[in-house]
Design brief:
The protein contains 27 helices and 7 strands. The protein is α+β, with helices and mostly antiparallel strands. Mean pLDDT is about 95; it is low at about 5-20.
């Protein structure tokens, strides 16, 4: 997942000076190598509030100056000036978001609660600045616009459309209410996120005896022991309430009773009978979103949310999801039947339950394809796979990575690499890697840009990070990860490469700042390189022998590549469909549990599977607006990535075809949002994407 930041708050602005910088390091300009980097070692959470308030005042002053410029509006004195405004706030917001996701704590939470609405309030003031909008509109409508470059015209259109979408043309009464709604939503988003993090932190599965470890691979056992020690528990081991801990436990534990307990604490996050219950919060979010959409002239929030995406209309997304849903259901039925046979053969007297699915799917895969996750995992060393990602980036995008030690980091686990073009030697940015789970870090994996690439004044290097939640084992032993985790690693690195390959002028259009249902395409296509023999032979090395993964095993992995696609498709699309249906409500007065149950029943959701994100823990859609009515974007982007993969594998010479890779770089990874995504994709592919390639990739029937 690409962690999206508020566009206006992340623009790259002019350098300013302020006497307060000597007292509050958050207010200081980033200094040092690479055009300046965050001085993480100097920041304290108590500096956030005064720094944010000072930086907001500075930014609003800069925007007021643009709005009140006595000169006639031009591209330079209005649009470019906006691109340069707000440097301090951009930098502070990047650090603030980093603390929120990676270093959250009881001390930071009240600061987050108090200050998050301030960012929304700032955006409201900018979007509702009538003089500023009139200047943007004047540039947008000016005959002189035709003389601008295509990138400049795109930037003018983007700012004009964004202001209109956020209510710049609404009446005064509506503007006031929209501002109130945005403020209230900001607080609710923070509350939802903090509640979810609290349940992830406070609930866990204690492993009391040696028997409780039955079936667990040695590295998972060691991680559980280490987790118990870190929490200072009397138990022998502990399974943390995060996806990276729970899913391996559900896959390998022979203890069905403990699998059920682990499953229940995970799917109950945000839905427990405690102060962190999210149901009331999320209903209020839905109600406010519905009201806001109607004030902006849209029937539902989904209609508003999709108005700046490739899909444009909710109906198109539902049609796509349903076209894949029914084949996926059929595949799940086949897979469950095989699993149930195995239960019976073992003498089991139970029907496959959700806490059994991964366990028996793994058994079926082993029996059917002779592919055992425990046989694969010794070859999947985290550090070797990281080297493999670097090698792939070098092969397809001509990038090289060099570790650096002169850049401050926010935690001892974080490491930094300088990224350069191998041919020219030019540095293109820094890549920060934060791989391990810890207290105060939200679960999952994501990419963030601390600073966008741009050339508006001079070349500004991007600073990007990948953050994961792998579990540390014993000290000085390699971290072994699952195949799914390896795919996630490559996925998030794809987002990072999207930022590092960016070569545009204006930060608003830079890197991953593309429509939400396109932004996952570059990350999803990069997953394809993991399974290539070139990567597996060089970097899938056994952690004890150093030998590469045997070709026979590689071939079996390839044959099993589409195994369990029904499960992963149903798990994900059920969440996307529920997300869309929630945001198509014209009256959001619902009981979330009832809505979830009835919606899934109408979809004939298999009883053996739950949504990947149940409603009370669906942080994608309730910790911010970025993915709200947008979770379908993963499927939308996978349609594109599957089609794009065939440019290499069907029309080209394979995934390392230099000519196809060059087109992918030139028309996708380097252009950001300077070109309409549909236009840029056609330039790469020569045609528009269809869902046929996705159906082939998942071994579903292609319907003509």
């Amino acid at each position: 997942m690409k962690k999206i930041l508020l566009t206006l708050l992340m623009s790259v602005p002019v350098v300013t000076t302020n006497a307060q910088t000597t007292k509050n390091t958050l207010l200081a300009d980033w200094k040092g190598p690479y055009g300046g980097v965050p001085a993480f070692e100097t920041y304290t959470i108590h500096d956030f509030k005064p720094a944010i308030e000072a930086a907001i005042n500075e930014k609003l002053g800069e925007y007021d100056k643009i709005a009140n410029n006595p000169s006639a509006p031009t591209f330079e004195n209005t649009i470019v000036a906006m691109e340069k405004a707000g440097k301090k706030l951009a930098q502070i917001k990047a650090v603030f978001d980093l603390y929120s996701s990676n270093l959250n704590s009881p001390e930071f939470e009240p600061i987050e609660t108090a200050m998050t609405p301030k960012f929304f309030e700032t955006n409201n003031k900018i979007y509702q600045n009538a003089k500023l909008f009139n200047r943007i509109a004047a540039v947008y409508r000016s005959p002189e616009k035709s003389k601008l470059t295509k990138e400049q015209q795109r930037l003018v259109w983007y700012h004009y459309a964004n202001f209109v979408r956020e209510g710049a043309q609404a009446d005064a009464k509506s503007k006031a209410r929209i501002a109130e709604i945005n403020q209230e939503l900001a607080g609710l988003f923070t509350k939802f996120s903090q509640n979810q993090l609290a349940d992830e932190t406070n609930y866990y599965l204690a492993l009391q005896t040696e028997a409780d470890f039955d079936g667990l691979p040695i590295e998972l056992k060691n991680a559980a022991i280490a987790e118990a020690k870190e929490r200072k528990l009397s138990a022998m081991g502990c399974i943390a309430n995060t996806r990276s801990s729970i899913e391996p436990f559900l896959t390998f534990s022979n203890r069905r009773d403990l699998r059920e307990k682990a499953f229940q604490i995970f799917v109950s996050r945000g839905d427990n009978d405690n102060v962190n219950n999210n149901n009331e919060t999320l209903v209020k979010i839905l109600q406010l979103r519905t009201e806001k959409a109607k004030l902006l002239g849209f029937a539902t929030f989904a209609d508003w949310s999709l108005s700046n995406t490739m899909a444009q209309k909710p109906e198109k997304t539902i049609d796509l999801m349903m076209s894949v849903w029914n084949p996926a259901l059929a595949k799940v039925q086949e897979d469950v039947a095989e699993m149930q046979k195995m239960v019976v053969a073992e003498g089991g007297k139970f029907k496959i339950a959700p806490w059994d699915y991964r366990y028996y799917a793994e058994k079926v895969r082993k029996a059917k394809y002779d592919v055992d996750a425990n046989q694969i995992k010794p070859y999947l060393q985290l550090e070797k796979l990281r080297e493999g990602m670097f090698w792939v980036a070098g092969e397809i995008f001509d990038l090289s990575f060099k570790p650096v030690n002169n850049v401050p980091v926010f935690h001892p686990d974080v490491r930094v690499w300088e990224v350069s073009n191998k041919t020219t030697g030019n540095v293109v940015g820094l890549w920060y890697f934060d791989p391990y789970a810890r207290k105060g870090k939200r679960s999952g994996a994501w990419m963030t840009a601390y600073r966008e690439q741009s050339k508006v004044d001079s070349a500004v290097l991007t600073l990007v990070s990948n953050n994961c939640n792998f579990i540390k084992g014993k000290e000085n032993e390699p971290i072994l990860i699952s195949w799914d985790d390896a795919s996630t690693l490559f996925h998030e690195f794809g987002h990072a490469l999207h930022g590092l390959c960016s070569n545009v002028t204006y930060p608003t259009l830079s890197g991953t700042n593309t429509p939400r249902d396109y932004v996952e395409f570059p990350s999803q296509i990069l997953e394809r390189w993991l399974a290539t023999p070139e990567v597996l032979n060089q970097f899938a090395l056994h952690y004890q022998t150093g030998q590469p993964m045997p070709m026979a095993l590689v071939e079996r992995i390839e044959k099993a590549a589409t195994f369990n696609e029904g499960f992963s498709t149903v798990e994900t699309i059920s969440s996307a469909l529920v997300d869309m249906k929630l945001h198509l409500l014209e009256n959001a007065k619902i009981d979330p549990k009832t809505f979830e149950k009835e919606t899934l029943a109408a979809l004939h959701m298999p009883s053996e599977i739950v949504m990947r994100h149940r409603i009370p823990q669906f942080g994608h859609i309730f910790s911010g607006d970025d993915y709200a009515a947008g979770y379908y974007g993963y499927l939308w982007a996978d349609v594109i990535s599957a089609d794009a993969t065939e440019a290499f594998t069907v029309d080209g010479k394979g995934l390392y075809d230099k000519a196809v890779a060059k087109r992918l770089l030139d028309h996708v990874f380097s252009v950001g949002n300077t070109v309409d995504p549909e236009e840029s994709y056609i330039k790469f592919r020569g045609k528009a994407a269809t869902s046929d390639a996705l159906m082939r990739a998942r071994s579903f029937p292609v319907v003509k």
